[in-house]
Amino acid sequence: MQPIIKVEHLDVIYFLGKSNEVRALSDINIEIYPEEFIIFFGPSGCGKSTLLYSIAGLETNIHGNIFIEDKNLALFDKKETLQLHRKTIGMIFQAFHLIPTLTVQKNVVLPQILTNANKKERTAKALELLEYFGVKAQAHKLPAELSGGQQQRVAIARSLINDPSILMADEPVGNLDSKSAQDVMDLLKNLNEKQKKTIILVTHNPAFLSYAHRVFYIKDGKIVETRVNSNVHGVSVPQAESVKHTISRDIELLINTFSSLSPNQIGNLLIPFKAKQIVSEALIGMTTEEVEKIEKKVENLLLTGIYDNESTFEFLDQGPDKGGVDMDKRTARKIADKIKDIVGEIKTLEAEENKVKMRISPDSGGEVMQVRHYLLDEFDIEIKNFITLEIINQAIKDRLTNVIDRDVFRKRLSLPVKRGGAGLNKRTAKKMAKRLELLILGKYK
Ligand code: ADP
Ligand code: MG
């Protein structure tokens, strides 16, 4: 499967070399595949629009390469650029950009006037689209007579009149109330699923992220993370809100389902799943074979519990003759780092699993109780809930026996009750953790 859009080492710099130089994008590398629904997400000013317009061929301060359907944008002549905007890409904007003095129908037809389609065909096509979007009755009205949601539907109809394969939308629902916003998003989803349009959408609203197959998180002009909700091309990826949440939800589920198993057994059951999750973060553009190879490697890493960043990097970077995957160095480095982060997260989660185990066999030793009384008295906290007291006992016991470190101890105190913590406020938890460290120092020095 060839990407429909490929961005390589893209920098966009405004006022280059001047004192007011703005680096809007730095080293952006992405591949977008046909029929994907992609979201660029990030805070205001992070560079989302700049990236979208760069891909649309509307940005001039570009360094790096952008390929649309395998053709280098930089080499497009005037005619090809026109074709790109007439045929390949449809644009939708936050502000609709309808022409106020033209009727809805004429607005929709507008992009066709420059093509060869005859008038009758154009009109029929426009009406068909307006009907599809539920605004046919408004065809002869002026845009101002329509609601915001209706105007955006008209704008989407207009963007589709030349039947482009790619739809680009910059905050298309940013001006709409939440009901209309959702309607328009559903419409775009439908266009993606039914009419196989590739959609690239910019938003700063996290509520819409689940619409996308993949989300690129942008911060300070860089892509800082890619989230894969599902992969439209072959390799199936579990629906994931984010890797971290999915893993912990699954652990929770497994713990509840297999309460007779030890945390270790549960951990082992989870390993193939975890490996898949980690790899799914990074598999875009790889063959199934490569993906499986990496999954196996990650699975082994998780099994042995020894994580060695360099060896993962080498494995990813080296050629198949050496048992590797032959990735380019930058990608290999990125994935190795990503794997490291996620393995770290898993370690934290495993500590949580242990906590569940502890709860089953609570300690009743006098020392733990003493320390608990001391800490709670010291910070003037009264806890009546038995389970919460047990959780604090366990945390103290684990810290005294050095099963957990200070940070985990603090976390256990501050985590909400429903997530298995003691639900103390963060500052108190921090102070208690510090006090306990002092106690330990005083005792064991
Ligand atoms: P977003 O769409 O994520 O809100 P933009 O892509 O519009 O962000 O802008 C990214 C950065 O580039 C911002 O700091 C913005 O001020 C700057 N920028 C965007 N366009 C221009 C321009 N034409 N000239 C100078 N700076 C610009
Ligand atoms: Mg913007």
UniProtKB/TrEMBL annotation:
Gene3D superfamilies: P-loop containing nucleotide triphosphate hydrolases. PROSITE patterns: ABC_TRANSPORTER_1, ABC_TRANSPORTER_2. The keyword Nucleotide-binding applies. Residues 7-245 form the ABC transporter domain. SUPFAM superfamilies: P-loop containing nucleoside triphosphate hydrolases (SSF52540). GO terms for molecular function: ATP binding; ATP hydrolysis activity; transmembrane transporter activity. GO terms for cellular component: membrane protein complex. It comes from the Bacteria. Keywords: ATP-binding, Nucleotide-binding, Transport. This is ABC transporter, ATP-binding protein. SMART domains: AAA. Pfam families: ABC_tran. Belongs to the ABC transporter superfamily. CDD domains: ABC_MJ0796_LolCDE_FtsE.
